[in-house]
Amino acid sequence: MIRLLCSLIAFLLQFAFLQPAFSQAKRTDRDFSAFFREYKVDACFLLYDLKKKEYTQYNADRCRQTFLPASTFKIPNTLIGLETGVITGKDFTLKWDGVDRGNPNWNRDLDLKTAFQVSGVWFYQEVARRVGEKRMQAYVNNLKYGNRNISGGIDQFWLNGGLRISPAEQVAFLQKLYHNQLPVSPRSMDILKDIMVLEEKDGYVLRGKTGWATPSGQNLGWFVGYLENGGNVYFFATNVEAPEPAPDNFIQSRRAITENILRELKLLP
């Protein structure tokens, strides 16, 4: 009886940390347009404050729209690779096939952590191929990731296929990851959280992943993640877009804009 009661309490407590539905939660609109104009991009920004249980948003309509996840799909793809055993652990390595893909960071053997941090597309495409379409679809469904549509090819669906996700959905997914509430093993989530670390200093930890896709002659960029600082956690999604040719600073814009906004909000030093 005591064990059953403890299990029930633990089950109920996990939901105490979940954010309210995006449509129902308190939301504060902020004008961050100057940060985006500097980089000549159309964009939106969404942040969820865990303690206050409220959102700060810029361009609210776009925060609800869905887009190709591009390399932000490396977040669930890592979990799926680990859960299926395709990725054996943090030291899992794939040998470079010798094809020059125009990025010196990719033209080499890559282990999991390095592949995630340099956004090695070929590495994660091979992981997806080894997972296979049937298992991939089952895990994407189980994770309730975006629209769950993996049409367009097992190694392309997140780059130019059918998969779509909104900034609001990105933030919700990251919060479930933070609280270990995704339907995967704690080991897989711990490994993912470790390789997501971008910066750890001055009492804060920043985790995240960028993404870049080019649908229909447009450049679509992402930076999603969460910041632990001052005893609180802030989940964020920045989505940027610019026509071809991409501005020279497009690659830098995703993370730079986000960090500028976090500084404006006094969440980063």
Structure description:
With 269 residues, the chain is α+β, with helices and mostly antiparallel strands. The chain has a single domain (18-264), classed as DD-peptidase/beta-lactamase superfamily (Beta-lactamase, 3-Layer(aba) Sandwich). It is built from ten helices and nine strands. The protein has a seven-stranded mixed β-sheet, with helices on both faces. A two-stranded antiparallel ribbon has the order 4-5. A hairpin with a 4-residue loop joins strand 2 and strand 3 (54-58). Helix 4 packs across helix 6 (121-131). The protein is globular and about 45 Å long. The N and C termini lie far apart (49 Å). Mean pLDDT is 92; it is low at 1-19.
Distance between the termini: 49 Å
Q: Which strand order does the major sheet show? A: 1-3-2-9-8-7-6
Strand content: 15-25%
Number of domains: 1
CATH class wording? Alpha Beta
Within the CATH hierarchy, at the fold level, what is the topology? Beta-lactamase
Shape: globular
Residue ranges: pLDDT <50 for 5 or more in a row? 1-19
Average pLDDT rating: 92
Helical content, roughly? 25-40%
Main structural class: alpha+beta
CATH superfamily: DD-peptidase/beta-lactamase superfamily
Radius of gyration: 18 Å
Q: What is the count of β-strands?
A: 9
Shape-level CATH architecture:
3-Layer(aba) Sandwich
What is the tally of helical segments? 10
Order of helices and strands: HEHEEHHEEHHHHHEEEEH
Largest sheet: 7 strands, mixed
